[in-house]
Amino acid sequence: MNDNVSKYLNQQVMTASPAKLVSMLYDRAIMSLKDAVSAIEAGEIERRWKANARAIEIIGHMWSTLDREKGGEIAANLDSLFSYMLGRLPQVDFQNDPAPAQEVIELLKPLAQSWRDVAEGRAARPDGTLPAPAPAMPPQPQSPGVRTSFSA
After folding, report:
1. Contact (Cβ atoms closer than 8 angstroms) between residue 51 and residue 39
2. What is the pLDDT of residues 60-72, one digit of tens each?
3. How many CB atoms lie within 10 A of CB 149?
4. Domain boundaries of the chain, sorted by first residue
5. Which of 5, 11, 53, 110 is the 20 to 30 A CA-CA neighbour of 94?
6. pLDDT for 5-64, tens place per residue?
7. From the CB of residue 59, how many other CB atoms can be counted at a distance below 10 Å?
8. CATH for 3-119, among 3.40.50.300, 3.40.50.1100, 3.40.630.30, 1.20.120.340?
9. Which of 66, 56, 63 is nearest to 29 (CA)?
């Protein structure tokens, strides 16, 4: 990977909110599974294996870090869903079959979108209402050549 790209991605991770980090994990898992499907279509077994292994690692990490005590029903549902996904994905490699990867992609998509909504402040509240959008700052008229300065 290009050094500048690596630095940029590192900066994105280091400055992301916890919700954004989770969103990034879901997106990366989906991207990896799409790569596995593409590799199957191209007959690239090693690429398929690496992409599927990356997705399994990400989903396994999310599964192992679930807070089942504080997460209540949502964590219990995610626990079952992640377990199901991790049971399906080995079939991608064992049978060189894209169907389990495509199935897991479809399961991950709404979760990824939900985490993007949370990270961007668009998630519904517990009562089902959406937060009000942040008010936009009105444009400030600027006269050419006029500078505003403050002094103490």
Report:
1. yes
2. 999 999 999 999 9
3. 4
4. 3-119
5. 110
6. 566 556 665 666 888 999 999 999 999 999 999 999 999 999 999 999 999 999 999 999
7. 24
8. 1.20.120.340
9. 56
